[in-house]
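Hi R.,

Here's the input for the iron/sulfur cluster complex you asked about:
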Amino acid sequence: MTYLAKPILHHPSLPKNSHGFTRRDYEGAISTLCAGCGHDSISAAIIQACFELDLPPHRIAKLSGIGCSSKTPTYFLGASHGFNSVHGRMPSVLTGANLANRELVYLGVSGDGDSASIGLGQFAHSLRRGVNMVYIVENNGVYGLTKGQFSATADKGSKSKKGALNTDSPIDLASLALQLGATFVGRSFSGDKDQLVPLIKAAVLHKGAAFIDVISPCVAFNNHQGSTKSYDYIREHNEAVNFLDFIPRRDEITADYAQGEVTTVRQHDGSLLLLRKLHESYDPTNRIAAMNYIHERQAEGEVVTGLLYVDAEPEDLHAHLNTRAGAFNLMAEAELCPGSAALEKLNASLR
Ligand SMILES: Cc1ncc(C[n+]2csc(CCOP(=O)(O)OP(=O)(O)O)c2C)c(N)n1
Ligand code: SF4
Ligand SMILES: [Mg+2]
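And here is the predicted structure with iron/sulfur cluster in place:
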């Protein structure tokens, strides 16, 4: 039934945000993914987060590569800017768009094949450069679109649907993001919307490279016994280190928290991250400790989720390059092209 267009009329009693949009205004086309695919739950979480954050859809740019995961931007934020790039090339296209117009919210959507194999270099450089974006990997441990080959995030010793053993070591994208200098790193599970929605909201308002690894089971090729990316495995081995309450700048804190129960991180825009500790000694502001903890638990077969690391004072690529404020498309020709005399002067200074 995917050829059916979604009805555009909404029920008048649907709740609206401050722009007068309902949640449905943040949806996209009807999904063509397999029923039960984790990727559809991530799309729903993105829709919820953008609606609750009151983001005007035309201020969001969604970019992706190739894969079932990279198809998903068609199924959310239908009124936003979108660019479906080449396999593994989303980060460089997003970087270019961000340099030309820093005023938009950039949402990069990718898969474990897209980011951990062909796009590994692009993944690495976009994070180490601090591109201001939310980079989401919908991680199912397989190439879903090309019918279930192991991806580079598949765990050593895990088995394919047909019983083949994966003998290669896995790439843990969250650990790699930490090592590369990402200033916001989270991990979640497509089946845990309560954890995922606040993580996405906090990442959107983080002014730097925010990466979220979302374990997203592929029901067609990697949801069997022997897989470590199945619904059952993740439910049994999910170790959440904290629960995030995201408080936008305009909202008051209404809940009561006992002293020592929460860690508070204030982001540059004034929004508050209230982290309820689920693990006694976990400190999400300590990069090295976060890396160690993830590896320790991984060795025990556990998947650590939650807000793994945040830098409350991030710097983005524009700060690194000291670029001029403002979007190129709003600059007059004289500003964009200062003329041959200015070029001559610049060339002379480099001789
Ligand atoms: C340059 C190039 N190489 C290979 C392919 C074939 N291909 C398409 S999608 C894909 C992998 C997708 O896996 P992933 O990114 O994990 O997405 P999923 O489908 O699992 O969500 C591959 C290898 C391609 N489209 N382009
Ligand atoms: S093949 Fe796997 S990843 Fe692709 S839509 Fe189906 S369940 Fe999702
Ligand atoms: Mg995949």
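One thing worth noting: The radius of gyration is 21 Å.

Cheers,
M.
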